[in-house]
Amino acid sequence: MTIARDLPDKCLSLLLPLHRKKQQQQGLDAAHLKESRTEEERRVRANDREYNERFQYASNCIVTSKYNVLTFLPVNLFEQFQEVANTYFLFLLILQLIPQISSLPWFTTIVPLALVLSITAVKDATDDFFRHKSDNQVNNRQSQVLIHGSVQNEKWMNVRVGDIIKLENNQFVAADLLLLSSSEPHGLCYIETAELDGETNMKVRQSVPVTSELGDPHNLAAFDGEVVCEPPNNKLDRFSGTLYWRECKCVLTNQNMLLRGCVLRNTEACYGLVIFAGPDTKLMQNSGRTKFKRTSIDCLMNTLVLWIFCFLVCMGVILAVGNAVWEKEVGSLFQSYLPWDPPVDNFLFSAFLSFWSYVIILNTVVPISLYVSVEVIRLGHSYFINWDRQMFCSQCLTAAEARTTTLNEELGQVEYIFSDKTGTLTQNIMSFNKCSINGQVYGEITDPLEPKPKRLDFTAFNPLADPDFCFHDASLLECVKVGDQHTHDFFRLLSLCHTVMSEEKSEGELLYKAQSPDEGALVTAARNFGFVFRSRTPGTITVTELGRQVTYSLLAILDFNNIRKRMSVIVRDPQGRIRLYCKGADTLLLERLHPCNQELMNVTSDHLNEFAADGLRTLALAYRELTEEEWEDWSQSHRCADTASDCREERLADAYEQIEQDMMLLGATAIEDKLQEGVPETIAILSLANIKIWVLTGDKQETAVNIGYSCKMLTDDMGEVFIVNGHTVQSVRQELRSVIPSIRLP
Ligand SMILES: Nc1ncnc2c1ncn2[C@@H]1O[C@H](COP(=O)(O)OP(=O)(O)OP(=O)(O)O)[C@@H](O)[C@H]1O
Ligand SMILES: [Mg+2]
Predict the structure, then answer these.
(1) Which ligand sits closest to the CA of 518?
(2) Cα atoms in the Cβ-side hemisphere of radius 13 Å centred on 149
(3) Could you say which DSSP state residue 436 is in?
(4) Which of 462, 393, 426, 354 is nearest to 615 (CA)?
(5) Can you tell me the distance from the alpha carbon of 519 to that of 498, in angstroms, rounded to the nearest whole number?
(6) Which of 375, 393, 475, 612: CA 20 to 30 A from 605?
(7) Which atom of ligand 1 is nearest to the CA of 696?
(8) What one-character-per-residue DSSP string does 481-496 give?
(9) How does it sit in the membrane (predicted)?
(10) Residue 440 Cα, ligand 2 centroid: separation in angstroms?
(11) Is 463 in a helix, a strand, or coil?
(12) Looking at residue 593, what DSSP letter applies?
């Protein structure tokens, strides 16, 4: 897991109350104090600490350690006495302090117990020491805060909600920020979110237009906009809020936010307003408390110890009964010769006392040393993991690292593995492999026996081509050259309908920055076939079409999300025609086509199924001509949905749905994403060990099944591969029951 690599296990509960108390002592106006526990909305005014302090928002200081000097002893002892054996030995110790039953000197128990407790305590203390150290390191990192118009260095922990922070390239974001302005054009900036969600591709964030012009520190120091937004929560991909500034009101979304844990990339500098700090940041809200973890071996040992203890009690009972019988039959007759000790006055009480004495004498049957041995074995294991040569990555020169010594043996007892597909099983390097345009497939290698045709050379045809692009089917290039309208539209769509950013270092030397590698591959394909995406501004897209520069005005972007499974753009070309271009999953796109596409649709779906059966990732492409009136009508309802403060997402989805209708099919693309090295072998070995593997993917079903076969998740000798297609709990349950009647479901 990459979540919070530099910020180990989190425990925040201590920080909040302490911090809040401190602010209360500063004598703030009690009438303004809001009940912080039920924060319903957050109000933040830029550059106004006094105003923001009324709300007692958490500061940017984080605490992930479990103990401090004072709490260490009680908390740690409390945790350790949850171990059955430790409690048992404490109990013995108390028994031994009673002289009438004590049969062994008290130190025979206290020495081993003290030893076990102190070794564990030292281990816990060291773990926590490292947490303290990393907390300190994080809290003391320097960030540049804008104070009275000048940029000053401040420690991260001194940053407050409402401050404006300056970030430079490759710096970690210190708190959850609203992006205000950036050194890049149009208030754009790029971030890497690997620490948050494990994805290493770059993401784009954009500031709202009213603040993107602020630029220099003086303007920003005078900025006194107020943000009203949702309270702290753990949703990484969502943010809703509104910015009020100088009579204007802007809707804020996740697209405007830089979250703590991200790294700024490819951007010289940017400024952000702190919205959530410290424990309120989305990163920290996502990391649970540091819990006391117990492995299944621990549980087993605890049960064993309980059984052994029961056995011990039984032995004590048998021996005490023997004692009672003997005292009654024989002992009592010897009273004058060997009298009972003072408090004992009958044989039953004598038996009661001897029961406890036997519990003490026989205590060695409970194996306390087992716990120590297991701890030592775990420590040894963790070293073996660190030394394992087969887990050494020779490319990045890193060895495996056991970060905890408490959970190692669980590794040998894994039953289920949950994996993501793209980027985990596959390389996440996408290559444009085949396509279907107007019912015609390109890129197919018809005869596998014939030698593979040569890689196409695009340089003569198009000086802007990417030399790394690889395609073998010359007929597609021919179609473009002879001016086939469908082919031109197909590549025009690919060069317009995406969210890729381009960077042109020197004339003609283009570098695409794509949020999703699929899009990168498609835009690069269009580039090689003569439809070169050059640059974009918030309102335009510039494309070099077969050597001719064309600037489209970008009227709307209908974003992709994983429910819609498609994205569209609406553009106006220089002749004034308005078109909607849409690309997305065939399942959703094909049902939104104009009825006149029926024949082409049948052919294209056959092609799509063929592509999917080869394990390729497919997308269908379509367009729609819009009249000026249609556009005007729709843009009004879109604007209305976009500025709505409640249910904005649903309203936007409805608006998108309205316009993405009656489209004309252009074709389909197929992209290959190769498996990572060693994946099939690894999966085969894991399934030999009877480990069940689940893979998550958003691909087309046929593609997913095919990839399942190629990575040996599914094998030919699995007789009973079945597909469950339900959308509700009930229907899934129904389908599962019909396949396996004996299955037990909750
Ligand atoms: N940029 C895009 N534009 C249009 N449609 C897209 C885009 N990206 C994905 N899709 C479509 O949406 C579907 C779901 O994609 P999504 O990215 O949510 O899947 P995923 O969970 O990332 O799956 P995987 O890990 O297999 O990539 C895809 O199968 C594809 O058809
Ligand atoms: Mg995806």
Answers:
(1) 1
(2) 3
(3) E
(4) 426
(5) 6
(6) 475
(7) 25
(8) HHT-HHHHHHHHHHHH
(9) Multi-pass membrane protein
(10) 26
(11) coil
(12) B
Q: Is 697 annotated as a binding residue?
A: yes
Strands 416-420, 692-696: pairing is parallel
Handedness of CA 236, 237, 240, 245 (dihedral sign): positive
Ligand 1-lining residues (CB < 6 angstroms): 420-422, 516, 518-519, 560, 562, 565-567, 583-585, 619, 697-700
- Structure tokens given for 78: 């409390």
Q: Consecutive sets of 10 residues in the chain, 746 residues long: mean pLDDT of each?
A: 33 30 34 53 91 91 88 91 82 84 78 85 88 91 86 90 92 93 86 80 85 85 91 89 90 92 90 93 81 79 89 94 89 77 78 88 81 85 92 89 80 88 86 94 73 80 90 91 94 94 82 86 95 89 94 92 91 95 94 94 95 92 95 93 81 92 95 90 91 90 90 83 88 87 70
pTM above 0.80, yes or no: no
Residues of the chain with CATH 2.70.150.10: 15-63+138-286
The H-assigned helical ranges of 590-700 are 598-613, 628-642, 648-659, 679-688
Cα–Cα–Cα angle for 449, 450, 455, nearest 5°?
Answer: 125
Amino acid at 656: Y
Q: Is 420 assigned a catalytic role?
A: yes
Q: State the Cα–Cα distance between residues 609 and 703, nearest whole angstrom.
A: 9
Q: For the domain with range 15-63+138-286, which CATH number is right: 2.70.150.10, 2.40.360.10, 3.40.50.80, 3.30.70.270?
A: 2.70.150.10
> At a CB cut-off of 8 Å and minimum separation 6, what does 174 contact?
60, 141, 143, 156, 159, 165, 167, 260, 274
d(CA 170, CA 266): 8
DSSP designation for 456: P
What stretches of 502-643 show up as alpha helix (H) in DSSP? 517-528, 586-589, 598-613, 628-642
Task: Give the DSSP letter string of 152-206.
Answer: EEEEGGG--TT-EEEEETTPBP-SEEEEEEESSGGGEEEEE-HHHHS--SEEEEE
CA distance 690 to 549: 59
What does the block give as tokens for 456? 């196409």
Catalytic entry in 341, 420, 457, 606: 420
ipTM exceeds 0.90: yes
As a whole number of angstroms, the distance between CA 184 and CA 506 comes to 17
* All CATH 3.40.1110.10 domain ranges in the chain, comma separated: 432-673
Distance 402 CA to ligand 2 centre (A): 31
Superfamily of segment(s) 432-673: Calcium-transporting ATPase, cytoplasmic domain N (3.40.1110.10)
